[in-house]
């Protein structure tokens, strides 16, 4: 793994920033393909990708600062914008990115939940690529495996500063791989007769389930808030419970509505 790809003079080109930018670009490209395939709103995807990507970066950073690392940053306020040091919470990124998309869709009279269903697989694809950035930067790492197996990070990384040369669980790698599985499951679910909003809700539920269990392996922070659970796990539980309720509600709502009349093809 390489934190610094090369230097332009004294300015470092960091793998973290490059891969993170690539994740936003490729997620936007995937969303454009899915929207084009669906036949709706593809002309808005790039704009939403820009606004959602920038908002997601801000949200991910603020979420990490205030929920995970406030004990440090309250004494180092000027370092809050230093995202290249690591410390980006994906849950905050999703929330802020969704809010940016919600505002955009409302201003342009786009069906928010229908659009969210279309682009949900693209979001989880972007998250998977983003975990590559974490690996190269040496953050979002696991705790020691307690055996001769695991990842040993270079001395320049935060993981090494915390645990030294102890082998660590590959938490960020496994999350990126699970994200690909979720990506495929969402694509398959889109082919079913699902209710509006269910694809995006399923994305939130599946990712939250994965994140809840992966947190048991994470070692970049260990503060327990309630019942021995970390803040990310508590957030995941809330999303799983609320998401499951809304998933069922959307399905029942669709069944209660009369079916739309089929459009008859015009004879030539």
TrEMBL record:
**Is Transmembrane helix set as a keyword in this record?**
yes
EC number(s): the record gives 2.5.1.145
> Which molecular function GO terms apply here?
phosphatidylglycerol-prolipoprotein diacylglyceryl transferase activity
Regarding the membrane, this protein is recorded as:
Multi-pass membrane protein
Q: Name one GO biological process term.
A: lipoprotein biosynthetic process
Record keyword Cell membrane present? yes
Please name the pathway: Protein modification; lipoprotein biosynthesis (diacylglyceryl transfer)
Q: Where are the transmembrane segments?
A: 13-33, 45-63, 83-105, 173-190, 197-214, 234-252
The record, for InterPro entries, names: Lgt
Alphabetically list the UniProt keywords.
Cell membrane, Lipoprotein, Membrane, Transferase, Transmembrane, Transmembrane helix
Where it sits in the cell: the answer is: Cell membrane
Enzyme class, UniProt record, top EC level: transferase
Q: Which GO terms of the cellular component aspect does the record hold?
A: plasma membrane
Q: Which residues bind a 1,2-diacyl-sn-glycero-3-phospho-(1'-sn-glycerol)?
A: 131
Q: Name one Pfam family in it.
A: LGT
- Report the main location listed first in the record: membrane
Q: What does this protein do?
A: Catalyzes the transfer of the diacylglyceryl group from phosphatidylglycerol to the sulfhydryl group of the N-terminal cysteine of a prolipoprotein, the first step in the formation of mature lipoproteins.
Q: What HAMAP family is this protein classified in?
A: Lgt (MF_01147)
Q: Which family does it belong to?
A: Belongs to the Lgt family.
Q: What is this protein called?
A: Phosphatidylglycerol--prolipoprotein diacylglyceryl transferase
Q: Which organism is it from?
A: Pelosinus fermentans B4
Q: What is the lineage of its organism?
A: Bacteria, Bacillati, Bacillota, Negativicutes, Selenomonadales
Q: Which gene encodes it?
A: lgt
């Amino acid at each position: 793994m390489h934190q610094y790809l090369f230097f332009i003079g004294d300015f470092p080109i960091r793998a973290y920033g490059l891969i993170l930018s690539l994740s936003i670009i490729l997620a936007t490209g995937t969303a454009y393909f899915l929207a084009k395939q669906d036949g709706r709103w593809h002309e808005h995807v790039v704009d939403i990708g820009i606004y959602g990507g920038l908002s997601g970066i801000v949200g991910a950073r603020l979420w990490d600062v205030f929920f995970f690392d406030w004990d440090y940053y309250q004494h180092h306020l000027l370092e809050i914008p230093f995202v290249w040091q690591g410390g980006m919470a994906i849950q905050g990124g999703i929330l802020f990115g969704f809010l940016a998309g919600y505002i955009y869709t409302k201003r342009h009279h786009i069906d928010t939940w229908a659009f969210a269903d279309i682009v949900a697989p693209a979001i989880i694809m972007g998250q998977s690529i983003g975990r590559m950035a974490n690996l190269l930067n040496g953050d979002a790492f696991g705790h020691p495996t307690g055996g001769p197996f695991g990842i040993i990070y270079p001395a320049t990384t935060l993981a090494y500063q915390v645990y030294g040369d102890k082998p660590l669980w590959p938490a960020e790698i496994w999350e990126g791989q699970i994200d690909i599985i979720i990506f495929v499951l969402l694509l398959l679910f889109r082919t079913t007769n699902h209710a509006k909003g269910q694809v995006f809700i399923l994305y939130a539920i599946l990712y939250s389930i994965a994140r809840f269990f992966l947190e048991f392996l994470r070692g970049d922070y260990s503060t327990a808030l309630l019942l021995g659970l970390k803040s990310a796990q508590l957030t995941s539980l809330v999303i799983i419970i609320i998401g499951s309720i809304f998933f069922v509600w959307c399905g029942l709502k669709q069944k209660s509505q009369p079916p739309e009349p089929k459009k008859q093809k015009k004879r030539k």
